[in-house]
NIDO domain-containing protein (Heligmosomoides polygyrus), 561 residues
Amino acid sequence: VAVSPELIGVNQSPRITHQNLRELDWTTIDRRSEEGWWHLYPFGERYFDDELSHRPWMEKQIDLDFFLPYYGFRFNYTFIFQEGFVAFSHPWYVQPPYSFPNPHWPSKPDPSLIAVFMAEQQMQHVGDSRISNVWFRVIERPTNLIGYNNLQVDPEETSREPSLQQPLGVYSYDDPRFYRTYRGRQLRTQQGRVEDPEMLDSITRDVRHSMVGARGWKADYALLITWERMSYGGAPKITDMSKYEQAKRWQNTYQMVLATDEIRTYCMLNYANINWTSSSQSGALTRGRGGMQSALVRTVVGFNGGNGTGFYPLPFSSEGNSYKLVQFGSTQVAGRWLARVDEQIQYGGCTNSSRGAIELSQQYGNMLGGFALNVTGPCLRPNDVLRMQLDELTIDCERIDMVMARCVVPTNAIFKIGFVDVKLSVDAGKSYPWWTKFYIVQPGLGRRRVNLINDPREPMNDWSFYDPQNLTISWEWENITANTNTAVDITLWGYWEDTEGHSLKQIGYIAKRHPNNGILSFSPRNLEVDLEGDADAWRFFQGGVVQVRASEAWLEDRGDR
C-alpha cells in the first residue's frame, strides 16, 4: 500500500502499520509525529540525518570542524556508539556492568564520554524490516551570523553579494529538499551536516530558559544524535510483521544535543520512551527488566571526564527505575535534562529534593552591589516566598518560573570582600536548606557595566581633567531592561570610609529620563541645577561611582513604584 506524499500535511504523518512500513517515503515524514515525541528535536531522513552502522560496537567518528569544550578539554571530533553513548577517546570493550571512572586507571583506559543511556543494546527487526536507527547530524550557523547575540534583533544580511536564486554546485535539481535558504541566502545542506540557524535559535532559547547564566550565550554549533527504538541486548528477533505495533512499544528512544559557541558547552538529554532498563548480559530477567541496570554499576546516565578526572551521574541511576527519566526532568519539560559541561559539570534546571546546592547566574559580584542574581536549585511553586541570605544581608527574591528566581542585590549593603555564604529559603526565611558560595570583589576589580570614556584626541575631554568641556558615558543598555522604551536616570554617588565607619550616598543627578540607548555625552558646565543634590558633597567625598538605572519617573508612570 503506497502513500502519496501530496496527501500528507507538513505536520501530519500517515498511519504507519506493518502493511505500509516498506512503502513509506520517510523523507516526507516527521518521525516524531507517530508517537507524539514533540519534546525531541526533529530527526530522521526528512531533516538530512545520517545513520550509524547497524553492527554492535561499531563506532562512527565525526569530525566536527569546530571546537567542543568538554570537562576542561577541547575536542574537534567524537565517536558515536550504538550502545547509547558518545566518546572522545576510544573506550575498551568489557562485559557489563561498567564502572566510571575506571577503578583500574591508569593501568586500564578511562575514556572521556557522555553516557546518554549506556547499555548493551541492538537494532530491532520486525520480519526483515529494521525499526531501530541511530541518527546524527552536525548543525552549524552560517559564518555571517556567528557573533550576533540577540536572537530577536539579528540584523538583515548586508553583504554586497547578490543572493542566490537557484541551487549551484553539488545541489541537485532532482532533489529540491537540498535547496534551503535563510534571509535570501542559500544554506549548506548535505547528509549529516547542515546549516540551520533556526534550529540553533530554538536550542538557544530552550537552554536560556532552563539554565541560569545562559542568557548571554548563543549556540553556533550543535551535534544532535537520536537513538530511535533501540532494543535491549539479547532481545529476540520478531519474525511476524503483524506484531509491529507491539514491538515498537517495547523499545527505548532518546536523544542528545551538544551545543556550543566554542567557549561554553551545554548538553541536553531528551527521553521519549524508556521501556527496558537492562540487557540480557546484565542479568535481565524478562523483557529487559531487572539485572544490574544495563549501563554502569552506579548509573546509566552521566558524564565521565576520562583519565581519572571524575564522573558526574544524573538522577535515577542504577536504581531500577531509570524509566523515570521520561516522567521527570530538570527543566520545565518532562523527559528533558540539561547540564553545562565545558569545564566542570553544572547541573541545570531544578530538583524536588528538600535541600542541596544552588546555582547562580554569576560566581562573583562587585562589593558596591546593584546587580541581579538569577538562582536555581529547588523547583519553585507559585506560592513559595523566596528569600536569599548573602552573608549577613537578607534579600527578597522574585519567582520567574518553576526553574528560576531573581534576587537583586542592593547598593550600599555589602562592605567586605572574599568568599561569602549564599543561602536560599522558600518558606519566607524559616529555613535555608539551599546553599552555595559567592565571591565579592573590590570595585576596582569588578566588571564595569558603566564606562567613563576619555577622548584621546582631546585631553580636555578627560574625566580626570579639572575643567572638561565634554564628557561621555556608555553602559550595557541590555542589562537595564528588555523594554526598548525605557528611560534611565544617571546619578553620581560619593563614597568615604575611615576606621570608624563608611558611607555610600547619592549626591546628585547627571541626567534624568534619558533614553536607554547606551551612551550619553554632556557638558559639565551646562548641567541643570540639581535642587536635590548635595552642594557641599565635594567637601566630604574624594571618590565615588556613576550609576545608570531605570528612571524613577518612568517606573511611576508604569505603576511599578
